[in-house]
Design goal:
Blueprint: H1 2-53, H2 57-64, E1 66-71, E2 79-80, E3 86-87, H3 89-101, E4 104-109, H4 115-120, E5 126-132, H5 135-140, E6 142-143, E7 148-157, E8 174-178, H6 182-189, E9 193-197, H7 200-209, E10 214-218, H8 219-225, E11 235-250, H9 256-269, H10 276-282
Parallel strand pairs: 1-4, 1-5, 8-9, 8-10
Antiparallel strand pairs: 2-3, 5-11, 6-11, 7-10, 7-11
Helix pairs in contact: 1-2
Length: 292
């Protein structure tokens, strides 16, 4: 009888252990399956986001929630105000455009000569900094419609300005120019000696310090920063070398170009204080504004 009871107890234990083993196996299988399903869903969402952003700058910008704008210190287009925030005609327009896309704006100072590399490397999403629509620019980027007229102009110390009123009189001058800019191209066209510097503000500093004879900068910047009542009241503008237009640059194939062109058109037709006309008047560039 004892042997029978012992046999029955042993069989019960085996059945119990087998049941526990099955339960454990089922539990692990369920947890593993849920984990795999969750991972698959997450990967699917990531792939979906990447797929949406691939080939679409608009989707890419909206997905990350920020429009990154490449600029230099260039009054009255992009410069820092009293609270150390970027302001200016271009800065205000870029902020309004980002808002229309439902994203924030971020301004990043770049070396102007590296603008195409920065754009293609996606460290910035656009170049919006009083950029002249040169052949180099339009061949390397997709650009917006022109929105402001500009010119390259010579700046010299006021006490020698009467000596430099024609292109022919400039041949012996050493110019300071922003590297990679339309000003540098103008200096090359003159076959003049020049020193490339980081930005146009630095070019003016070079002339004021006497380390360069003259600078070639944008006429819009000259109007804001050169002459009586400005930061450089000992400098004056003389010879206008070229006429040109400003545009905003995006990566090749970018769908943000069409978005910005429509934004410009809508803003030009607007009569509110936030319109492109109102912002142009705020920064004194209304005479250069191009109809959209």
């Amino acid at each position: 009888m004892k042997k029978v009871l012992a046999l029955l107890l042993a069989m019960a234990m085996v059945i119990s252990l087998a049941a526990c083993g099955n339960e454990t196996k089922t539990s692990v299988s369920d947890e593993s399956g849920a984990s795999k399903t969750e991972s698959a869903d997450s990967a699917s969402k990531t792939e979906s986001a990447d797929s949406a952003a691939e080939g679409s700058d608009l989707a890419y910008v909206q997905d990350k929630g920020t429009l990154v704008v490449g600029i230099t210190d260039f009054e009255p287009m992009d410069y820092k105000g009293e609270n150390d925030q970027w302001i200016g005609f271009d800065a205000d327009m870029a902020t309004a455009f980002a808002k229309s896309l439902g994203v924030d704006v971020e301004f990043v100072e770049i070396v102007w000569d590296d603008k195409i590399m920065e754009l293609n490397g996606k460290t910035i999403d656009c170049v919006w900094n009083g950029m002249t629509l040169t052949d180099e620019v339009t061949s390397a980027m997709d650009c917006s419609n022109a929105y402001l007229k500009n010119a390259q102009i010579v700046v010299v110390p006021s006490d020698v300005a009467d000596q430099y009123q024609t292109k022919e009189s400039l041949s012996q001058l050493n110019f300071a120019v922003e590297t990679g800019s339309a000003g540098e191209a103008a200096a090359k066209d003159l076959s003049a000696e020049y020193t490339p510097v980081e930005n146009q503000a630095t070019a003016l500093m070079e002339v004021a310090a006497g380390t360069s004879d003259a600078a070639i900068i944008d006429s819009l910047m000259s109007a804001a920063m050169v002459g009586e009542g400005t930061s450089y009241d000992s400098l004056v503008s003389t010879v206008e070398l070229t006429s040109e237009e400003y545009g905003v640059g995006f990566r090749k194939g970018s769908d943000l170009v069409e978005k910005l062109n429509q934004f410009f058109a809508d803003s030009y037709a607007d009569s509110s204080d936030s319109s492109i006309k109102a912002i142009a008047e705020k920064y004194g560039v209304q005479a250069a504004l191009i109809q959209q």
